[in-house]
TrEMBL record:
Residues 40-93 form a coiled coil. InterPro entries: DUF892_YciF-like, Ferritin-like, Ferritin-like_SF, YciF. Signal peptide: none annotated. The lineage of its organism: Bacteria, Pseudomonadati, Pseudomonadota, Alphaproteobacteria, Acetobacterales. It comes from the Bacteria. SUPFAM superfamilies: Ferritin-like. This is Ferritin-like metal-binding protein YciE. Keywords: Coiled coil. Transmembrane segments: none annotated.
Amino acid sequence: MAETIQDLLELSLQDTYSAENQILAALPELEDAATSPKLKQAFREHREQTERQVERLEEVCEMLGIEPDGESCAAMEGLVEEADDLMEELEEGPVLDAALIGAAQKVEHYEMAAYGTLCSMLKSMGQTKAVDLLLQTLKEEKDTDALLTQLAEQEVNPAAMQTLPAKE
């Protein structure tokens, strides 16, 4: 049972570590399902970035004497399951690509919230080195979200619009 801010920090770090590992496992499936070469590349690059983010979390946990493995992140399980459902329900093509971007952005927003919360707690505890490490990750998550928005607006959504029937 969490009774102190230290307990909450430990639970939050473990939850985020689980979330990152779950998305790391899911990214190859997202990459395979995508048809847009730019989207495939974005998923591939984010997988490499996520590997570094997991390493940063491990480093922060080690600095603080916290075991990173804990409960599985239920929120990420739900987000990954939602993406899996989309891949089953939609045919390969631009509409699925648009759905994959939406699913990935939900993940990014969850991660941004998690890292923002962790940074606030760590800052309050005077853990400036840990804050600096996790701020790097927070910036990467925001940059990935911006890249996904750009891909959606400039390429994927216009291609998906072509699937609409012509107006008479």
